[in-house]
Specification:
The complex is a heterodimer of chains A (about 70) and B (about 525). Chain A starts with a helix and ends in a 10-residue tail after the last helix. Chain A is built from 2 helices and no strands. Chain A is mainly alpha-helical and about 70 residues long. In chain A, helix 1 packs antiparallel against helix 2. Chain B has a single domain, classed as Sodium/glucose cotransporter, CATH 1.20.1730. Helix content of chain B is about 75%, strand content about 0%. Classes of the chains: A mainly alpha (about 70), B mainly alpha (about 525). The interface between A and B is large, with 38 and 50 residues.
């Protein structure tokens, strides 16, 4: 696979970490108690896990395994 | 005392695991003691790598930071780490593993010396790495003292709590080496991953639900900003994404990457790492924020009053008065206070053991420093050739004892918050050292002189920023940003101006495509 797509996905996730859109607001409280900014970053961790799963399929450095 | 008894039982179990590992360990010399024979399986590798990177401030410091600063703590330290650390493990960690396997490296400095064909420059890198690692070890002792004092309700004084934790950690590192440390870390990770879910449920029930607590905080102008990030500039927030670069540059993480039996073990690790971060940090940060609503808890009310007094203090106020108020307002023990208030005694003990699990993460750093000393100094300067590998391992064990004693002595005298100490010295310094690793692994043209320039720069920058408040904090960024970017520039400029390593050496690291 082209390296561009994984690189683009990584760049997008990096930008999404800087969530200016929830900067000055606590509401809505997700599940009735979780400030939205905190909920965003919790969901962000799950998105990163999915990204890593995908990267290990499309960008796994398999050539290193026989480097030795 | 019931929680303290449970915690002491937990410490005994941890000690047993370390010594059990010692009895199960084939006595095969340095590779076995320092790297567990490069044979760790997938579950231990994942759990232990995560546990290795979780320190006292994961639970105590993060809750304390969130108590003072609000939900921003999670974005600053947790979600940025959840993103950067797996990425660096995936691309740099796997490469280090492969090179370690093919060249027999045990430490990063061994690789740097070989990669850049240098000797004493490697020693300079060792000195800076070691100096930056010591504060990280001290954090563990401090956290142990704070946690045991809190869990025992003050019956165990700070100095004794720190001593007990130091002795337990020292013992299983001394006997078990990397295998013992990895097994203990895996066990501890399970403990503190369980801690978050149980603590949030028990405390939430005791508080009568979190919705009311959040609405209480939102109704006051003094506490509502804790639920947003309006007090933090986006640039400052952005600059924190540079801090997790430190992880792959930390010797204990780099060394740990070499312990995997097969490279495929990195796959599961990078996928589950963000989930583990979420499971442990989210409850701690949330509880730290929620603690601000507990004005009816005297110990928390005192902290809030101290914080208010600190905010209204005139700039001409004496420094010791300011420091005293800061100490009173510090929230490193808020989770312990909440457990004390809302959890039944036996459960508080179990949860306290979960806290101890995170607090005792200094084991890997102690072992790493011992590994570095014996490999990068003792062996490099002829010790192993002269006295044999058995003496090398014994030297490593003696080093573990001496290092722990020194860290404990310093911990009794350094009155600084856990979080500040970690960020100020170790994290920023190692982030700024990360270009060394990336250049060695990915840039053919990098040279030993570029590496020396980066090392000297980092040593200077860490001393400078620790002595001059606000130094290098340009345009509202944290010092870690200019420190790291300057490292990159120095590596590039100095490398291009100096002769490259030999073709044979470069060829051992970078194979042409198709071969």
């Amino acid at each position: 696979m082209n390296k561009l797509l994984p690189a683009l996905a990584v760049a997008i996730l990096y930008v999404l970490h800087q969530d200016l859109w929830f900067w000055r607001t606590a509401r809505p409280l997700v599940f009735g108690f979780l400030p939205v900014g905190l909920a965003w970053h919790g969901a962000y961790c799950i998105a990163v896990a999915l990204l890593m799963w995908w990267l290990t399929r499309v960008a796994w450095p398999a050539n290193l395994d026989d480097h030795r | 005392m019931i929680p303290a008894v449970i915690v002491f039982a937990y410490l005994a179990v941890v000690l047993y695991i370390g010594i059990f590992a010692f009895r199960r360990t084939p006595h095969g010399g340095a590779q076995e003691y320092f790297l567990a024979g490069r044979s760790l399986g997938p579950a231990v590798f994942l759990l232990s790598l995560f546990g290795t990177n979780m320190t006292a401030f994961t639970i105590l410091g993060s809750a304390g930071h969130a108590f003072a600063n609000g939900i921003v703590t999670f974005g600053l330290m947790a979600s940025s780490s959840a993103f950067i650390i797996p990425l660096t493990l995936l691309f740099a960690g796997t490469r280090m593993w492969a090179l370690g396997k093919s060249h027999g490296f045990i430490t990063p400095v061994q690789m740097f010396r070989h990669r850049w064909e240098c000797g004493h420059i490697g020693t300079a890198i060792f000195v800076v790495q070691a100096a930056l690692l010591v504060p990280y070890i001290i954090i563990g002792v401090m956290g142990g003292g704070t946690a045991l004092t809190g869990i025992s309700g003050g019956v165990v004084p700070y100095w004794l709590g720190g001593a007990i934790v130091a002795v337990v950690v020292m013992s299983y590192v001394f006997f078990g080496g990397m295998r013992g440390t990895a097994w203990v870390n895996a066990f501890q990770t399970i403990m503190f991953l369980s801690f978050g879910a149980i603590a949030i449920f028990v405390i939430g029930r005791g508080m009568g639900g979190y919705a009311a607590a959040m609405n209480t905080l939102l109704s006051s102008p003094a506490t509502a900003p804790l639920l947003t990030r309006e007090r933090i500039s986006p640039l400052f927030f952005f600059s924190y994404t540079f801090i997790p670069l430190s992880t792959i540059a930390f010797p204990h993480i780099a060394i740990f990457c070499l312990t995997a039996k097969r490279m495929v073990q990195f796959k599961r690790t990078v996928i589950f790492y963000p989930i583990c971060i979420l499971a442990i940090w989210l409850p701690c940060v949330f509880l730290g924020v929620a603690a601000n609503s507990l004005r009816d808890v005297p110990r928390i009310e005192q902290k809030l009053e101290a914080r208010a007094a600190l905010a209204s203090l005139p700039s001409s106020a004496p420094a010791d008065q300011r420091a005293s108020l800061r100490r009173q307002a510090a929230g490193d023990d808020v989770v312990l206070v909440m457990l004390d208030r809302y959890a039944p005694l036996w459960l508080a003990g179990l949860l306290g053991a979960g806290i101890m699990a995170a607090v005792m993460a200094s084991d890997s750093q102690i072992l790493a420093l011992s590994t570095m000393f014996t490999q990068d100094v003792f062996a490099f300067y002829g010790g192993t050739a002269r006295f044999g590998e058995k003496v090398q391992v014994q030297t490593g064990r003696v080093f573990v004892v001496v290092l722990t004693a020194v860290a404990y002595a310093i911990a009794l005298r350094v009155p600084q918050g856990i979080f500040d100490l970690a960020v100020q010295f170790a994290f920023s310094g190692y982030s700024a050292l990360s270009p060394l690793l990336f250049a060695a692994l990915f840039w053919k043209r990098s040279t030993k002189w570029g590496a020396l320039a980066v090392t000297l720069w980092v040593a200077f920058a860490v001393i400078y920023t620790s002595q001059v408040p606000g130094a290098l904090a340009w345009y509202g960024l944290m010092p870690v940003v200019p420190m790291t970017l300057t490292s990159v520039v120095l590596m590039v400029v100095v490398s291009l101006a100096t002769p490259a390593p030999s073709t044979a050496t470069v060829g051992a690291y970078f194979r042409p495509a198709g071969q």
